[in-house]
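pasting for the record
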Amino acid sequence: MKHLINYQNTPIEFSSKLSFKSKKPVSVFQTPGNIYITKMVILLIDCAFWLQAPVAVVRKNIQAQKQKNTQIVEGIKQKIKEVYLSNKSRLTSKYIAITNSKTQQFNQAAHMILEFVENADHLKFTPFLVCKPSCMGRSNLFEKISKGTSLSKREKQEWSDIKERFRQICEKAQSTQSAKIIIDAEESWVQDCIDELAIDLMAEFNKERAVVFLNVQMYRWDRLDFLLSINKKARKENFKIGVKLDNGDYRSKECIRARVKGYQSPLCIDDETTEKNLNSALRYCIHYLDIFELFSDIENDIDAKVVEQYMERYQVSKEDSRIWFGSIMGKTEGISLYGR
């Protein structure tokens, strides 16, 4: 008669089947259950930090993160080398920047953009670097400034640092023959100060050609008036306006926040109105190409067709350097690289 397994004492029955790899996770979960061992480990870790001694676990995690960041940067550089653009092809390549609220991370993001801009003239296409403002500074600070709330001394310095990061990037782009910077759009409650910053940068660096572009989200009913106002300002102060128009990425968030906070929604009434708003903005920019330069995303086939229709109506050549087209190779957040 074959030996029957005694399910009443499974640890003993299966003890010979347990390998070291299977026992290891069990011991890991059982160890914290011992209160004496847990207290001893916590005490040792506290002492190590107090003595500023290297802790193996922490050091291992830091090294792993550094290695991961290095791989990301190297991957980005390799992608740039692999991108080839023929005269007829128009491609877009987007890359990610890992950021958080720490000043060091914001500086690293700015430094990464500067590296791309420095190599812009060596690329086989006209590069557009899309920079998300939340990679350059805290969204909470953008919101506070947009509301007109008074800033502390530390926050004023922080805002000054953010403007300086953008200014260095735009100044570097202006020194090249082809590089352009697109300042990406954020949520409506943080966008006002970003708009003001972008317009100030345009007034400074867009005298001869459009170096600085602003992403304008046309799901907002007030954006057409915004384009009218900056057109007047640009003509008065003699600078070019660079814009990238789209339908926007934050509709759900905008709608929910407006309902919760009880203020008027910045959204157009419906999708049809949003489409009309976008088409009106496209037509307006193409009509005033003496001031505007327009970037259109080929990924949105409808928008690209509308642009081409208006170009035919106003007899604008498809090779006109004031209208740019791009297609997306990969969607990410943060820092993006476009190419014509």
